[in-house]
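Continuing the batch. This is chain 6 of the set; chains 1 through 5 are on the previous pages. Same settings as before, nothing changed between runs. Recording input and output for traceability.
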Amino acid sequence: MCGIAGILKLHGGSPGPQMLRDMVGTLAHRGPDATGVVCSGATGLAHSRLSIIDLEGGRQPMSIADGRLWITFNGEIFNYIELRKELIQKGHTFSTRSDTEVILHLYQEEGEECVNRLNGQWAFAIWDAEKQKLFLSRDRLGVRPLFYTSTGDSFLFASEIKALLAHPDVESALDLQGLDQIFTFWFTLAPRTAFKNIQQLPPAHSLVVQNGEIRTHRYWSLDYSPEEVTSGTREKQLSEELLNLLLDATRIRLRSDVPVGAYLSGGLDSTVITALTHMLVGNRLRTFSVSFEDREFDEGAYQRQASRFLNTQHSDVPCSYQDIAQIFPEVIRHTEQPILRTAPAPFFLLSKLVRESGFKVVLTGEGADEMLGGYDIFKEAKIREFWGRNASSQWRPLLLKRLYPYMDGIQRQSPAYLKNFFRVSEQDLASPFFSHLPRWELTAKLKMMLSDAAQSELRHQNALTELESELPSWFKSMGSFSKAEYLEAMYLLPGYILSSQGDRMAMANSVEGRYPFLDFRVVEFAAKLPSSLKMKVLNQKYLLKKAAGGMIPSSILHRHKQPYRAPDGKSFFHSPNDYVDDLLSSERIERDGVFDVGSVNALVAKFKLGRATSVKDNMALVGVLSTQLLIQQFINNHSKGSSQCQLRQTCAAS
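Output for chain 6:
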């Protein structure tokens, strides 16, 4: 794991090494062990290293073929040992034991198609001096980030936006259309980001810059064409196949020259991964978790059960309301985009614990919910579809109250309100976004907090239309369950879960997360499973539970799914916080120009009086505050003197 950055001069000349050092210097948290910069013709590559594999020999940027091929690489290739053996048989010679060198030789052998052979999580750039071609690639599911932009004479790329902003020709300005998407979906639609003129390379895409032209292409996509399962024998075979795939995915993710630990949340997914890891490494496994001061959010009892059952050496970090408020500015400095929940903050504390415990690498359970039918939104959509077939039913909506026992707002509502909120009309049932309509409609109400100028600039924008326009042609022919899975796996997973909660919070403390459930073999296998094996009636992750029987505590295997949550808006008013008062003050809101002063004042007053209890209130508060922090940290404080008054002028001109 590392931070990467680079510059390609488009019209002659060569980039200066100091500029590359300035860019990669902003990524020291991603790679504190070593820094490297190289200039080769029109290209400069930079690298900040977190040493995990081949500690002595894996320094970057790295070259082969007498300097004709150079690479700067962030991530891990887990099947590098097998690929290395294959390449040696074809006559390639290696000077290191690193996975980085394997990528270079594989590119030399297969060109841009080499990425199809990789099993891993990556973002890399290869400079092919002979062809005068810069080749960038990002892994299939978007575990590792990669951003880029163009100035008058240069193409720039980096692991994080802050590295691009270190270049004097890159302006820092909030993209209101990106904000509109976040205030609908929780994420921007790649390649858009929260910053104007700064793009992200979408997952499963490669990018080439050659002869002054930029082209991108998708190299991988998921096929949701489930096979039919007609017998209990076949079901048993599939559960065994799933378990074997997960075991091998875990095995190759333990390849490391430094110790590997595991996150253990107390839920099914992380406990399964911990159990598989325990099978492979025995009782020397270290596990880590977060515990919450507020028992409403705490899963400590299940974490301790799992640790005792699997005989791990376990550590946890407590998280309070004050902790969340205190670290939130640092969290936003790393997310580099507004967020609507405080959920990333505890992950920041967790990775800090891991690093302070002497670990650089952890295995974790992300991906199971998206791929194997674990989210409540899948169950909710199934109930809503069932209700929609008999919309006048008085008892069918009660199933939704049972689904969300922890949400008081849902429990208090009448069937008539639930019918309106959960969108079960005939028109709703026909929507390609049926599964997500309630979530996105609720989130979109946050845009009422925007200033008149911001709303005016966005008056012609429709986030749902934008999303629908980029869906594959076969999306509408998919079953409703598969549609919901696709939207979670292809959008929320890379756009929020793996970024704001995943890569950004782990790498903030120089920790690499590895995700066995996101091994592409597991993902492709899961996509082919019929929905009835992912959710049997309303039993979530049915096949995974069948595969995990006997491996983990029964209490965890059969517990009611508790979605990961953290204290939200209340955290910022539990005790005085000067930065909160400043950023949400009338003067600051007016000066920054994004939000409506009266709406923000009313929301803050509601929290101070203890009357803000709804999901919408909490999302609004966190969304406004995180946006204000983003403006302060990246725009108002930007070294070139850009000010948010430029945004006000842009809004007014619109």
